[in-house]
Amino acid sequence: MAEPNVGQSGRGGLTLNPAVAQQRATISRVASAAATPPAYGNIITVLSIDGGGVRGIIPGTILGFLEEKLQEIDEQPDARIADYFDVVAGTSTGGLVTAMLTAPNEEGRPLFAARDINDFYLEHSPKIFPAVSGGLLGLAKGVFSGPKYDGKYLQSIVRKLLGDTRVSQALQNVVIPTFDIKLLQPIVFSRYHARKDVSKDALLSDVCISTSAAPTYLPGHQFQTKDKDGNARAFNLIDGGVAANNPTLLAMTQVSKQILLGCSDFFPIKPADYGRFLVLSLGTGGSTKAEEKYDAVQSSRWGLLGWLYNRGATPIIDSFSTASSDLVDIHASVLFQALRSDKQYLRIQDDELKGDQSSVDVSTGENLNRLVGIGQGLLKKTACKVNIETGRNEPDASRGTNEDELIRFAKMLVQERRARLQRKLGN
């Protein structure tokens, strides 16, 4: 066998043939210069992140693990989550994580590595959700004096973080839902829309502030954009969780819509070809199921205040956010099972949170670190799927742990990305 030519250093001190080194360098340049759309590949890859306030630490922990495995398998130490997913969708705190993963830094790479997301939460959550008076004084403030928090710190840190970046400048296709309280209708911000309709090309910071504006917790957000003729368009927005606390189906629908509109990124995939989707859906933890806080006898005695405040919780918000997330999971799970492609859908969620763990705003150091531990523990649990008869999540005997499934997903994501890059180079 001929001696290998001395060239660029490889892993473990080995050397690569210059031709191989040049090919890898070229692939790296192609990967960083522009995304390779599904038209070059075999599947459509979707990442979805639920809303849940400080519980965003849980998907942050999972994403840190996934990104580490992607770097390891792809032998790309600077690889990022956005390099592997065609669509990244997020609601409320998930919308903020979406922006962190896809907004460009000065070098045109994602602003945050996934492993840094939790550091952001640990540093800033206590200032976004500062301790407030409890008891009757705290209740009176929440009922009569506006939202529980003024939102000023959240707005300042998000604006500092995202600057003048607009939705159209995201490095990957983002989907972030909000709800217009004036029009009483969902408003979805996506890179697809922003590149065709300048009035939807809002500042990414405005979108993140809006999708996080949970009723009773943070104030609604008003801002304006301009259409192509220079006319103002006003938005009056609150938390996207009102519309889609789990944005998985919303992301898939946005893809189908683009296919129907003839977007070349997806040719020749068909609008309802869901068997070609690879979907990772990350929850932020169930807020009330394990504790069974409420019952019909209790709720039958509640008036307005009872639905807004009960033993430190907000039953009406717990109810609509949990119902929204679960119905989407049931729908998606049944869809993938019906298509015999259920191994291409992975939902990671913990429905056993109790006490402060289930809160969206308890930002003590103790609770935040406990949430990190919950995310790490969730990796070790057996992957679940929806029982289509009961609608409940149950351990899936045909799967390993969530960690095992994420490694399997990482291998598929790397294989898909490599295939696309090779085809793009070939063309």
Automatic annotation (TrEMBL):
Picking any one GO biological process from the record gives: lipid catabolic process
Per UniProt, the short sequence motif GXGXXG occupies residue numbers 51-56
Q: What are the residue boundaries of the PNPLA domain, all occurrences included?
A: 47-252
**Xref: Pfam families:** Patatin
Q: Which CDD domains match?
A: Pat17_isozyme_like
Q: Identify the residue span(s) of motif GXSXG.
A: 90-94
Gene3D superfamilies in UniProt: Cytosolic phospholipase A2 catalytic domain (3.40.1090.10)
Keywords (alphabetical) are: Hydrolase, Lipid degradation, Lipid metabolism, Plant defense
Q: Where is this motif: DGA/G?
A: 239-241
- The UniProt entry annotates the active site at S92 (nucleophile), D239 (proton acceptor)
Q: Name one GO molecular function term.
A: monoacylglycerol lipase activity
Which PROSITE patterns did the record assign? PNPLA
Q: What is its EC number?
A: 3.1.1.-
Task: Kindly give the PANTHER family that the UniProt entry links to this protein.
Answer: PATATIN, XYLOSE ISOMERASE
The protein's job, in short, is: Possesses non-specific lipolytic acyl hydrolase (LAH) activity. Hydrolyzes phospholipids as well as galactolipids. May play a role in disease resistance.
Family, as annotated? Belongs to the patatin family.
Q: What is known of its domains?
A: The nitrogen atoms of the two glycine residues in the GGXR motif define the oxyanion hole, and stabilize the oxyanion that forms during the nucleophilic attack by the catalytic serine during substrate cleavage.
Which protein are we looking at? Answer: Patatin
Q: Which organism is it from?
A: Paspalum vaginatum
